[in-house]
Write a structure and sequence with these properties.
- Helix 1 runs antiparallel to helix 3 (about 205-225).
- The longest helix is centred in the last third of the chain and has 22 residues, at about 205-225.
- This protein is α+β, with helices and mostly antiparallel strands and about 300 residues long.
- Helix content is about 15%, strand content about 35%.
- The protein is built from 3 helices and 16 strands.
Length: about 300
């Protein structure tokens, strides 16, 4: 979706310590300070490295969304699996600096997380940690069961950590899309063990899953968006649900389909599907068509 006009200003409390510990897989390099309670919320300073691009100079959208989940888990006392994560991106999240995060409770197991930089809100997300449900997406399962198309790396997002052919990150995913039709993509993915959840090494961290599903859904929207006169698409909102673990080194398929292109909004879905046809993770995304990719924002701090 389009950014809100006049994004909310954010006053960050004093006394946040330096980012000193990993958030998510250590190989990604995202680091957070110790949490600090202030003004009825919990706050963190988060260091974002300079090589986790989506569009050049901007933190990859799936990683932005998954950061909300990681921080909500830190303040949630119950430990139930994710039911739903929904994040609206209001402004690009810059690389190579420190951003701030705030968590507030909305109810039992439900948390609001906001990210900000330089006093400006970047995102607002709701994390519902009340337990996973089985996931169903029969059309995406059918798509995943077909022959794998030839991967077609694209330089439209050349340094994207998830799909870019020129990504600089040492654990870049290389999840290059393959087109089944102009509105559907399919790719095979063997997740790198370095992307495992630090607390659950038998499963891939949600950050990697969200990143791959974000890119797949964007590529499903890409060709129709370009045919309509756009240069590219940018993630506006992402809704993630996790049904079962994606395991490191387990060959899975990632299927994505465009559902509608309505004005500047491209609505697409993507799923991780295992060899038994189970939907392990599912994303509903709204991407925004743009005439040009934004200039990379300067570092947050």
């Amino acid at each position: 979706m389009e950014p809100e006009s006049g994004p909310s200003s954010v006053r960050v409390p004093d006394g946040l310590g330096p980012p000193v510990r990993s958030v998510g897989p250590e190989v990604l390099g995202l680091r957070a300070s110790a949490p600090r309670a202030a003004d009825g919320a919990v706050w963190w300073a988060v260091q974002v490295p300079d090589d986790l691009d989506g569009p050049p100079g901007v933190l990859q959208g799936g990683l932005v969304a998954a950061l909300h989940l990681a921080l909500a888990r830190e303040v949630d006392p119950f430990g139930a699996p994710l039911h739903r994560l929904e994040v609206r991106l209001e402004a690009p999240t810059p690389l190579g600096g420190t951003i701030h995060a705030r968590a507030r409770p909305l109810g039992t197991g439900v948390h609001e997380i906001e990210l900000s930089a330089a006093g400006r809100r970047l995102t607002r997300g709701t994390v519902d940690l009340t337990g996973a449900d089985p996931l169903s997406a029969p059309d995406l399962v059918a798509l995943a069961g077909g022959p794998l198309p030839r991967p077609a790396p694209s330089r439209r997002y050349p340094t994207c950590v998830a799909c870019g052919p020129a990504a600089t990150h040492p654990a870049a995913f290389r999840a290059h899309p393959g087109w089944v039709t102009d509105e559907a993509v399919l790719l095979g993915w063997i997740p790198d063990p370095r992307l495992a959840d630090p607390d659950r090494p038998e499963q891939v961290d949600a950050s990697a899953v969200a990143a791959v599903l974000d890119c797949a859904s964007a590529w499903a929207a890409f060709r129709p968006a370009v045919a309509s006169g756009a240069a590219a698409v940018l993630l506006g909102t992402l809704r993630l649900r996790l049904g079962a673990a994606v395991e490191p080194l387990d060959p899975v398929r990632v299927a994505a389909r465009l559902d509608a292109l309505e004005g500047r909004r491209a609505r697409a879905r993507s799923a991780v599907v295992d060899t038994d046809g189970r939907v392990l993770a599912l994303v509903d995304a709204v991407h925004v068509t743009v005439a040009a990719l934004p200039e990379p924002p300067g570092p947050a701090a």
